[in-house]
Amino acid sequence: MDDERKRALIDHELTHCTVEDSVFKTRGHDVEEFHSIIQRYGTWSNTLVKAKDAMERAEQLYLNDLADGVIKALDVSSDRKVQLVMKSFT
Ligand SMILES: [Zn+2]
After folding, report:
1. What's the pLDDT tens digit per position in 11-22?
2. Cα(88) to centroid of ligand 1, in Å?
3. Cα angle vertex 46, ends 61, 43, to 5°?
4. Å from CA of 48 to ligand 1 middle
5. Which residues contact 34 (CB under 8 A, 6 or more apart)?
6. 33 CA to middle of ligand 1, Å?
7. Total number of domains in the chain
8. SS3 24
9. How close is the Cα of 13 to the center of ligand 1, in Å?
């Protein structure tokens, strides 16, 4: 398991913890559904719509980070390195 997955697992488990009226409690998941139901009916509930929106936002953040990394690499590179990067896309 890589560091990012470990971080996600720890964050997941800590998200089960909550405080209500000064009492420590645990809470269930926001989303629970069968893959087969999603395949047959899509995002049929508000909970699934929220989950889909969250996944799309996470994907967009990942793509933004990826684009920032490419831009940063190009900014610090020499002309030769830029040529190599461009060649790798062709
Ligand atoms: Zn859990």
Report:
1. 999 999 999 999
2. 41
3. 75
4. 17
5. none
6. 13
7. 1
8. strand
9. 6
